[in-house]
Amino acid sequence: MLGVASALLLVLVLRGIFAGAIDQVTSYIRTSPATVFVSQEGVKTMHMSASALPPDTVERVRSVPGVTWASPIGFASGSVSGPQGRQLSYLIGYDTRTGRGGPARLEVGRAPGTGEAVLDEQAADGLGVHLGDTLTVLGTRLSLVGLSSGGSSITNTTVFVARTEFTNIRGDTDSYLLVGTEPTAAANVADRISAALPGVTTQTREEFATSEARIVTDMSADLLRLMSTIGLLIALAVIALGLMTATLNRIREYAVLKALGATTIRLAGSITVQVLWTVALASLLATTFAQLLSWTLPLLAPAVSITITSTALYQTTLGALAVGLLAALWPLRRIATLDAATAFRETR
Amino acid sequence: MTTADHTAPEQPTGRDRPVTVAVRGLTKTYGHGAAEVAAVREVDLDVHAGEVLLVMGPSGSGKTTLLLMLGALLRPTAGSIVVTGRDRRRVEIATTLERELPALRANTFGFIFQDYALLDALTATENIAVAANIAGIKGTAANRRARALLDRVGLAHRAAARPSQMSGGEQQRVSVARALANDPPVLLADEPTANLDASRGRDLSRLLRQLADEDDRSIVIVSHDNRLREVADRVLWLEDGRFKTLAGLVVDPVCRMQVEPTGPHVDWEGRTLWFCSEGCRTEFTADPQRFVAGGD
């Protein structure tokens, strides 16, 4: 049972790291107050994308029924460097008066002004910069005035600047438009915007996050996916071998039970129940440990995030159950033809 | 002296009880043609209710083959075995369909194994309850029966113990309790005392005697253990697949086996001593006092 639990734990943790990484990547979108995102026509993501909206987009979107607010952000990909190194980074210029498009949580400090920036605290630790220090973003030196959280992922980190500062660095272009609606009206409003502004791409927050997760999964998380797949195969092999060996090790016991009058069908039922219990208990144990790890590991390694999803639990447990049953019942033919008399002839 | 008669020699059993197991012309051969070996040859045997029958004999004499056939675990080549159940129904084992044998075993026989054969992962109670389940007793009734049987074999206090936590004697008592789970008319025991020390072996043999007396149960034991003779109503000697007259046999003073007085022997202090092999005779002649001092 412990072997099966360990194998399931391996799968859950690997999948949890994968899911956690994707969560981090889409954190900016998922935690945004906007329910609809407007981007350049054909641009569906932020990662590996450049978007530039026509100048009249903001006013036209604001006039669409159901839009409660619309706030443009400037967006660029580049790098941020400090005394201890350099990291890939998104640069986001936002309206500091409303805060829309800015960091979801400002842990320390204040919103940036001209010549200033807010950096994710994990990246600040890695780059060795503190409040008041200077960092370089896309070749521009900025003073660090705030530390945010949730902006670092396996692919990059995020630097927030005031929209005026972004204009100084990259020019006065609206990259994405963040749109506020009544929460339940997001899809309808997105459709209306699409109809009113055919030259842009409009997505709900969920669609935008899904697109972002997909491109990161496709491009940046191959290694994690590979690790997760290999882990799954190893775990299933361990489960299969473990349960098959457990069945084969009990051949003498099955012979004894046959001698006592048990039928093959009864023995198959008994094996099935054992596998169900083993996988259920192992799954419970693995889930508990994986959940504990998801809480404790980020404390030790802040860059690592483990997200245990119900889908992962469901798929992993069902996979283990299917493989376990197959492996445990594989020797059934041997059990069916097992001579009950061997109960007397064999000794342990 | 020795007889080649295949019929079980009659010994006084002191009983006049119904026959539970009636065996006629029972034969088992392995292999074919020139490689054919007869393990049991045309054996006739009646086992009575409440009787403890001890079958002895050298290794390879056919004891276990006989036991397996009696327990519906091995098809005879020829002959018949008729067993009478608790309900007085008579069943011919040799002609029972293969698919009906498990139910026949579950309702008619209790098996006691040399190495106890308990399921390691289960407690004493669970081991017995499993056998009760197989016999059709379900749920709490099976557990109640298991606990009652543990109490009967003096192990009520070990109900929650697993086999690995019990001594050999305790495990064999659990094995006996398990054999009683289906309240069988016939108990079949294969070398039940082989793994027990003298004291525990004696306790177990007395328990078997008690089970035969109190429940009117037939008990067939195959064993090399002479200690079991004191509780047996009859002792039969099986050799080369046939029963032989025990009275015509003598004990090898070295290995304590029953042997025919026809093979290796020595004259020693006015007596003729017989051995199962030249090896035993050589061992004896090297140091006679070592063997005779222990009592013959």
UniProtKB/TrEMBL annotation, chain B:
Annotated keywords: ATP-binding, Nucleotide-binding, Transport
One GO MF term attached to the UniProt entry: ATP binding
Domain ABC transporter: residue ranges: 21-265
Domain of life: Bacteria
One matching Pfam family: ABC_tran
PANTHER family associated with the record: ABC TRANSPORTER ABCH.1, IMPORT ATP-BINDING PROTEIN
Protein's name in the database: ATP-binding cassette domain-containing protein
Species of the source: Nocardioides jiangsuensis
Biological classification of the source: Bacteria, Bacillati, Actinomycetota, Actinomycetes, Propionibacteriales
